[in-house]
Amino acid sequence: MAKSAGKESYEFFSPDLLDSSIRKQEITSALQQALVNGEFSVHYQPQVELMNGQVIGFEALLRWNSALGAVPPSEFIPVAEECGAIHSIGEWVLREACQQLSAWRREGRPDVHVSVNVSAKQFLDPEFAEKVARILIATNVPAECVEIEITESVMIDLDTAAALVEELQALGVKLAIDDFGTGYSSLNAVKNIQIDTLKIDKSLVDEVLGSDRSMAILATIIELGKNLGADVVVEGLETLEQVTLMRQYEVIGQGYYFSRPLPADKAARVWNKYLEQPDGMFHAPILY
Ligand code: C2E
Ligand code: MG
Ligand code: MG
Ligand code: MG
């Protein structure tokens, strides 16, 4: 007993944990100034209809170039959620993405949507739908061109989530469930809310070429999405082999094969190549 308690208390003060708590404090404090310092930017990654090679949307992905260097969202988003900064940061991302879409529309580019990631804490804010509505009006973007990506974690408060989903659907914005297949209650999430898009996580796609069992699971999830009346996006496509295989399932693809997430001007250049040569992607990745 004493020994294990001693071991635990030793672990509590281990250099690793101390390092990570210092790092977290540094991130928390750097986050406070990040917006006013203009340290954030948004990158855009195309979503491609595999049947015809058309770009149908872009996912907006937040980038932070901070005094601490480039910090990935997987590291700072959880901290931003914890310290509450996620509300103002998330609102900024949504406005930025809508402004970009609005600019593309004014240039006369083809209709696409923009997908914006929204964390559970931000989504469950009772004023979230109102904030979305205000941004849509301010940026002059049609609601149906905006898709909100949530994960099953919003289901921790099912009643609130269901009410907010209804508010957003009344506005006309689209709803996607992200990282499908990675959590504990993915099925529960799609059972309880009506979604427009099911995004299948990269981890479910990674092994399909070498494993019949993985392919059977992926095919079944695609079918599930379609039976629910949702569009299906397969995330993390990196190779021509994967793209060729997925094409048979009539899904939307997203991944480094088509393009990494890029600043808006570069993303638009990749988009141009797709417009010029819509089936070029099936022969070689587009260079930029
Ligand atoms: P996500 O929403 O599932 O986004 C997909 C992630 O996979 C992105 O990582 C993207 O860069 C990466 N990715 C795309 N294609 C490929 C591929 O072919 N191979 C590989 N290895 N990776 C690929 P990123 O940008 O680092 O974002 C990580 C996560 O951070 C996102 O996962 C999302 O959950 C969160 N995130 C990003 N931006 C925001 C934001 O504005 N707000 C919130 N709340 N979360 C965000
Ligand atoms: Mg996402
Ligand atoms: Mg995802
Ligand atoms: Mg994710």
From TrEMBL:
Protein name stated in the entry: Diguanylate cyclase
Span of domain EAL: 24-275
Signal peptide: none
Full-protein interval shown: 408 to 695 of 695
Protein's organism: Planococcus rifietoensis
